[in-house]
Amino acid sequence: MLRTLFAAVLSLALAGLAGHAAAAAGAPPIQFQQRTLPNGLKVLTSLDRTTPNVTVQVWYRVGAKNDPAHRSGFAHLFEHMMFKATADFPGEFIDRITEDVGGMDNAFTADDITAYYEVVPSAHLQRLIWLEASRMSSLQVDDANFHSEREVVKEELRQRLFADPYGLFFSSALLEGTFKVHPYRRSALGSIEDLDAASLADVRAFHSTFYRPSNAVLVVVGNFDPATLNAWIDRYLAPLHNPAQPVPQVTAVEPPRTGPTTYVGYGPTVPLPGVALSWLAPTVTDPDAPALKVLDALLTAGKSSRLYDALVYDKQLATQVFSSSDVRQQPGMFFVGAIVANGHTPDEAIAALRAEMDRVRDQPVSAAELEAAKTQLAATELRARETIDGRANELGQAETVEGDASRANTDLDAQLAVTAEDVMRVARKYLPDNLRAEIGYLQQPTAASAAAPAAPGTAPAAEAEPEAPASPPPATAAGPAGPPAGLPPVGAQPEALLPTVVSRTLPNGLRVLVAKSSDLPLVGAQLTMMTGSEADPRDLTGAASLTASLVTQGTATRSARDIARQTETLGAQLSAAAGWEVSTVTLSVMRDKLDAALPIMADVVQHPAFAPEEVERTRKQSLDALTLALSDPQQVAMLAVPPVIYAGTPFAHSTSGDPASLQRLSPADLARFHDAYWRPDNAILVLTGDITPEEGFALAEKVFGGWARPASPTPAPPAAHVDHRPLAVAIDLPGTGQAAVEVVAPGIVRSDPRYFPGLVANSVLGGGYSSRVNLEVRIKRGLSYGADTFLTPRRTIGAFGAEAQTRNETAAQVVALLKGEMSAMGAAPVPPDELTARKSSLIGSYGRNLATAAGLGGAIADLALYGIDPNEIKVYTDRVQAVTADQVQAFSRDVFDPARASVVVAGDGASMLPTLRPALPGLTVVPIAKFNPDLPTLTSP
């Protein structure tokens, strides 16, 4: 579990859906009840009898804008503290009564609010109400927990701001280039210096000031008895005292701009320049906010959007474009921007962005373009409502940020009422060219501190760190000894209702599986080709990936622009990608648009044109994407894993290919790959959501029945015998803010009878916040924002890995900790309580994944791919529960043995190598300039 900071994305994605838009889509408004307790706590509840789960969320009206002076990042640091001890329970206990029973918990900090949320089986609802009352009223954090969690937050900052090539762009440069006075200009993650200056006294003062009933909103959505829930709320939350002193308010006012401004920020590793234009915007409740939201969709919602079409597709000036109507409680901002493509300059991109904004101000959008943007907004909101936590987020956002929960059922109505004249009017009013801020983001000059300052609000790029010892430091205590006194009992649990999967094979060999899983008017379609990157020709790696990328870029009868415009006008999401053993095309669409959207999906699957100009355009985008990946330590480490653990097999390369192979791939090569493997008898079509089996089979026959099966058989997948010899590799990325650590080895195939013991073993070792590696690396020592493990069974070959990101200087410590926990798994049986808890976590996560049409479709497709009855989704729980401690230990002794594992670390060599070299004898060091994941040595000549 991660304590995340996804405020902007979450806030924008989860606004309400209702009114005439909802009615048109066949979805009623969110039905909810509300009341206010005498102590000021607002309560919002929404009943859903179709789920066995419930979500409890508490939204506090305090965010990053409320950070104390010289304590930027404090609200976010405090968010972490809220998961520690209270007067009623010890530290880390929150995860015991959420994760350990099959649920999850998390939180996020935005500029205006901080929200805490849990999803659990409904039987545990009373315990969550008790829990939230306890941490609202009696938080108790000791010095050890405070210092440990502060280190975790600093690692999160390093990961998000210094290791991510564009972390400082979005979290610092964009904000400081837009705001001059208002605290919105500060990064919610803060700075290392400000975090170090925070004290335990600050934590206590912050809690007593802002964490009170009248400053909070409780949201409960799911399966519960309303009368019983109200009684629990009255019992646990109503008695809480509300302080007499008022909550401090932010009164700073951002002055209006009087002319254009410029700002340049710098980062330690910036592979391609970033640029943006920003303006000051109104509040979220301003009558003009809906028109700005529609304008945002017109500019960047999909490949038919204005900025993507002009800058990425047509002029090829940018490899990515973005925009946001970032309206907030107080006046916010509107911005557009781009990551500049290789061969172009920031000035070119700025000029192109200004030209597109001139068009918006000077020419009304067409009726068709406006309708397409509105349809996409409606479809996005519909997808947000698939889950109980999504609907709860809509209510919490509307109440705390907009001041009225009912706006969750009117906001989209307001957007759908926007006219072309409204769009032009708000563009002229708020986004005039003479009031723009031009923001650039560039590579830190070589003479760093002398030539240019580090990005404001952050630590210097060359941050000094104390040298860490090679052996792990002593661990702090973690976890409760037993259940606390006063813990409420567990109630009765509603039964989970899982859909039945029905299968049929068409005469052309296409297997079709349908599962009606929801009455929400949304359908997911996934077409899986049972061939992926393992079939790449030896000297043409990336063939499967590039083929998948190009099928949506033009057919015999539709251009790339036609495909984008037609699907996005329907509010549909159409995408394609390739993995190691599969290539997939996915479609998400509102139920009433399915008949129009599915034929487009069928066309791109069957008739891709591979036009030379589209191949060149997509090749260039792939090369730019690879450039970006090679500046991110996590992506670099993962690129190195396949050649390290799969040496000598068809899996020993990057799925995306290397620059040389991408340059070699021709339209004819891609057409040959497509003709060989993209065929109905090598494919599986899964339809899920609001569709019956009868409807699904009839539509599949109509749309895909004419797809001809070739006379020749599908080429057999290549054999892959693994002869893995453990290696230790360090990839040197000078200046990067963290090291990515991977301890990896070959895994198991899906048909292995130890599959379910393996799942349980992986859950114990690294499958969640309470797992062993996260306990040792993050919770006890604060060395990382999070550590986890993965077990990836496939048809031919699998993988296992333990991973974390950490300070460059502590990479060797983290390697030792990961290996130590791997070894311990095979040395002794897992204790009964731990085994039960990790099984519950695994089962709960699986169930939540099945709650969306896309998640269910992916699970069904995987089972069909591996030749397993797709209705195994109904016996998954029984299979997991049947696993024994002896089976887990035996599996761990074999697969998790650190002696058979390789180590890959990507980070700043100057900082990490002094401790890595003595810890890893025989270490091979690869400079990033020579790194090539398509070669066995990882090094180009």
By CATH, the superfamily of the largest domain comes out as Metalloenzyme, LuxS/M16 peptidase-like
Shape: globular
Main pleated-sheet profile: 6 strands, mixed
CATH topology type of the largest domain: Cytochrome Bc1 Complex, Chain A, domain 1
Overall pLDDT, averaged? 92
What order do the strands of the largest sheet run in, or round the barrel if closed? Answer: 1-2-6-3-5-4
Q: In percent terms, what proportion of residues is strand?
A: 15-25%
Number of helices: 34
Low-pLDDT stretches are 1-26, 448-473
Number of domains: 4
Tell me what the structure shows.
The two termini are 42 Å apart. The chain has 4 domains: 205 residues, Cytochrome Bc1 Complex, Chain A, domain 1, CATH 3.30.830; 183 residues, Cytochrome Bc1 Complex, Chain A, domain 1, CATH 3.30.830.10; 203 residues, Cytochrome Bc1 Complex, Chain A, domain 1 (2-Layer Sandwich), CATH 3.30.830; 203 residues, 2-Layer Sandwich (Cytochrome Bc1 Complex, Chain A, domain 1), CATH 3.30.830.10. Helix 13 packs across helix 17. With 941 residues, it is an alpha+beta fold. The N terminus is likely disordered. The strands form 4 sheets. The chain has a 6-stranded mixed beta sheet, with helices on both faces. It has a 6-stranded mixed beta sheet with strand order 12-13-17-14-16-15, with helices on both faces. The protein is built from 34 helices and 23 strands.
